[in-house]
Write a structure and sequence with these properties.
By secondary structure, the protein is an alpha+beta fold. It folds into four domains: 2-65 and 645-687, no CATH class; 71-206 and 225-291 and 611-626, Sandwich (Immunoglobulin-like); 326-498, von Willebrand factor, type A domain (Rossmann fold), CATH 3.40.50; 692-800, 2-Layer Sandwich (TolA/TonB C-terminal domain), CATH 3.30.2420.
């Protein structure tokens, strides 16, 4: 059975660019075969009338007149003073082609970043951007672009995903765009951590492209292939002034050079040996002498308002010896973007997490990609046999398919539970989804049913999702970037769930005129980190602030600080932006729960008043000089590198949901389906197999009691069996579908199959037969049988959908 797929390849009417046509055919055919191997879960349609948003692979055309990679460099200069980081990000755009460009670049930032300024420089002309309502800024940018004026527009697509548009970059132009943000560094377990995200990972989305909101269009973005270096230079420099003696500084993500200047200051820069540092988060950790945590009161008095920031250290953790039993639901992402390195980390983390359970606990495992499946109908006891079998299940996962997180969360919440046990749901994912809002809403509405913890897996995770789940669940978030960190993360989680550091927290103000305080209420403190309160105040900096609560040992805890001991200073001007960012974040959370015009207006006003980038305010800079006089402009979407450790499956399987034609799309203006520009259409037809469906017809064993376990194991292997079939499709001398295959083997006591042979093969494909036998040799089916061996016969049915 075959399906014909049509590809539209366009040539210039005059002369016909045959070299371009040849290049496209060479690129498209392998991409089709790639899809046929990785997208067997969904049928590929000839023509898709309702394409979903998906990233795609970048293909560089042979047309040298268009510079398809205008971003030449991005760098960050970071100044850390005490607990506040101030960051200047510089992006350099240069047009080395012959066509005037509009460049579009998607890039990340910290979820806590308060972006407060942007400056554009063209030659000797410097233009400071203005903050405006999002729609007005976009309109002003579009008008400037049409009028031939150089302009830059900075928009927020997610709290941690930004989009930069730079219009009318003339041939030979170099345009520099600088943006400034500040954020608060909150120590955990005495470790301060500054994170600079470098690349936005590909997002899975099942939203219709035609009906998707404007702030989701960025998901359709070009990516380079696995292992390809970023086409632009990356650099970062950090100046650290801790305010107290520094114990140590480390950078687990990149090789760096560290120069200490006195006991409290250090300069950190990338090692000259780093050649591809822009494909993973830059992570800087530091400790203060004596593992101290800075606490106290910071004050800033502006022209119209006064701001304060309170940091108060909680009591020492008290560990409880007799813990009540708990039920743990592990939700593990096994989608295409997790293939390889991220899934390996996930497996290691799962083993470390499940190894911390006690015999009194219960657990279940839910694996999700395009669909989901559970380890057991009911949670099982955390005994050695069940743990061993669960580990075996995940060891057999390779990663493939879409990333349907929301249905997985919904299914986890519907699993039957024990009313006498507290339920904890742990989510292990890279977060490459486009359903953050819906996930937050679901968790917020079900906090009474379970506690939620998120583990971000990989070198450049979607921290908005991971930290957002922790935020709405009033818990902690974890990010594991490499296998060596898995055990540490598991130990941290174990410590957090033992007992809170401080609960029932209250903050009282005596003779201190505090108002507009954030947060209004403070959740339990699970980690050893300071309690943080933002606010404004009226009158003199006098009086007292009292923090009270119940410690992990059940004792009353009280800590007080005298306001008069703190002196207002201009060095803390960032408090103005940090307070506004905290208020915007809170309002945005409510607005995502249920969109409200009043909340939208309040967020907009905060952005305009405090010069902040928000969902509804953007920065716009326009050079009033008309530079592009002929009005012609080519739109270029800057391709992004895949995050370190992420495979092509992250893009290939997502793009397949759009229809084949969108997988390898050009990102330059050279290839546009526009007859008005002397372009003609040519159709190339390629045949692909229809989607193959495999099901188990029968499993016979010499020990009937083990049938269910063996059948369940084989069912979990169907994706790999299907991959064997697709991989060897072109080797078949005579495909015959539908058809059955029957295989026999002996299962030894250690779970390893032996004496494997094919006794029936209606597919008549010897290479598939060899692949299947080699696959079965890797299986480890552990049973509770005491027999030295078990005879197994399995029949599989292959059908075409």
């Amino acid at each position: 059975m075959k399906t014909k797929l049509k590809f539209t390849i366009l040539n210039h009417i005059k002369g016909g660019n045959m070299k371009l046509r040849s290049t496209l055919i060479k690129v498209l055919i392998p991409s089709v075969l790639f899809i046929s191997q990785t997208s067997v879960r969904g049928q590929i349609e000839e023509e898709s009338t309702d394409k979903t948003l998906s990233p795609y692979f970048f293909v560089k055309s042979d047309d040298s007149s268009t510079d398809q990679l205008p971003l030449k460099g991005t760098s960050a200069d970071v100044t850390i003073s005490g607990v506040i980081a101030d960051v200047k990000v510089t992006q350099i755009y240069k047009n080395e082609g012959k066509n005037t460009l509009e460049a579009i670049y998607i890039f990340p930032a910290s979820t806590r970043a308060a972006v407060y300024n942007m400056i554009m420089t063209i030659g000797e002309r410097t233009i400071t951007a203005n903050i405006k309502e999002r729609e007005k800024a976009r309109q002003e940018y579009e008008q400037a672009r049409q009028e031939g004026k150089s302009a830059s527009l900075l928009e927020q697509q997610r709290p941690n995903v930004f989009q930069m548009n730079v219009a009318n970059i003339l041939p030979g132009d170099e345009i520099k765009v600088e943006l400034y943000y500040t954020e608060l560094l909150i120590p955990t377990e005495s470790i301060y951590e500054f994170i600079y995200p470098t690349v936005v990972g590909p997002r899975y989305s099942n939203k219709s492209e035609a009906n998707a909101p404007a702030n989701s269009k960025w998901v359709k973005n070009p990516y380079l292939h696995e292992g390809e270096a970023a086409p632009y230079k990356f650099n970062i420099n950090v100046s650290l002034s801790a305010g107290m003696p520094i114990k140590e500084v480390t950078c687990p993500s990149h090789p760096v050079t560290i120069n200490y200047e006195g006991k409290s200051n250090a300069l950190i820069s990338l090692s000259p040996l780093v050649k591809n540092g822009g494909n993973r988060d830059f992570i800087l950790d530091y400790r203060l002498a004596g593992d101290r945590i800075e606490s106290g009161l910071l004050l800033y008095e502006g022209e119209k308002e006064k701001f304060f920031l309170l940091l108060m250290q909680p009591p020492v953790r008290v560990t409880q010896k007799d813990l009540p039993p708990r039920e743990y639901i592990f939700i593990m992402d096994v989608s295409g973007s997790m293939n390889g390195f991220p899934l390996d980390i996930s497996k290691k983390l799962f083993k470390d997490l499940i190894g911390n359970l006690t015999i009194k606990d219960k657990f279940n495992l839910l694996l999700f990609a395009g669909g989901s499946r559970v380890f057991a109908e009911h949670s099982v006891e955390a005994n050695q046999a069940n743990i061993k079998q669960a580990i075996q299940v995940i060891d057999n996962e390779q990663g493939g398919g879409g990333t349907e997180l929301l249905p997985a969360l919904q299914q986890a919440l519907t699993l039957p539970g024990d009313e006498h046990m507290a339920r904890t749901i742990l989510i292990l994912t890279d977060g490459y989804v486009d359903v953050e809002k819906e996930s937050f809403d679901l968790i917020r509405k079900n906090l009474g049913q379970a506690n939620f913890f998120a583990f971000g897996i990989g070198s450049s995770v979607n921290r908005f999702l991971i930290e957002g789940i922790a935020k709405v669940g009033m818990a902690e978030s974890f990010v594991v970037t490499q296998q060596g960190e898995a055990k540490e993360a598991a130990e941290k989680f174990k410590k957090y769930v033992l007992s809170p550091v401080l609960s029932k927290i209250k903050v009282n103000y005596s003779n201190f005129g505090a108002y507009d305080v954030e947060p209004i209420s403070i959740p339990d403190v699970l980690a050893a980190r300071p309690v943080i309160v933002f606010g404004k105040y009226k009158g003199a900096a006098a009086g007292e602030i009292e923090l009270s609560g119940v410690s992990g040992g059940g004792k009353t805890y009280i800590s007080r600080i005298a306001v008069s001991n703190s002196i207002p200073g201009t060095a803390y001007k960032a408090l103005r932006y940090l307070w506004a960012r905290q208020r915007v974040s809170l309002l945005a959370d409510f607005n995502r729960l249920e969109e409200n015009e009043d909340l939208k207006n309040e967020i907009t006003q905060l952005g305009l008043t405090y010069n902040l980038l928000t969902d509804y305010t953007s920065f716009i800079a326009v050079d009033q000089q008309v530079r592009n006089t002929d009005g012609k402009i080519t739109r270029v979407e800057q391709p992004l590198p895949l995050p370190q450790g992420v495979s092509d499956y992250a893009v290939g399987e997502m793009a397949a949901s759009r229809g084949v034609g969108a997988v390898y799309a050009p990102s330059s203006g050279v290839m546009q389906f526009d007859k008005s520009k002397n372009m003609a259409f040519e159709t190339l037809q390629i045949q692909l197999p229809d989607t193959v469906r495999i099901k188990i017809i029968n499993v016979k064993t010499s020990t009937t009691a083990e049938n269910d376990i063996i059948s369940s194991y084989i069912e979990n292997q169907l994706t790999k069996i299907n991959n064997c079939y697709i991989k060897n499709l072109n080797s078949a001398s005579g495909q015959s579908l539908p058809g059955k295959v029957t295989v026999q083997f002996t299962l030894k006591k250690d779970g390893q199959p032996a004496n494997i042979k094919m006794v029936k093969d209606e597919l008549a494909n010897k290479k598939f037969e060899t692949c299947l036998i080699n696959l079965i040799k890797t299986w480890r089916i552990l049973t509770s049988s005491n027999q030295s061996s078990i005879s197994v016969e399995c029949t599989l049915q292959f059908d075409v959908q």
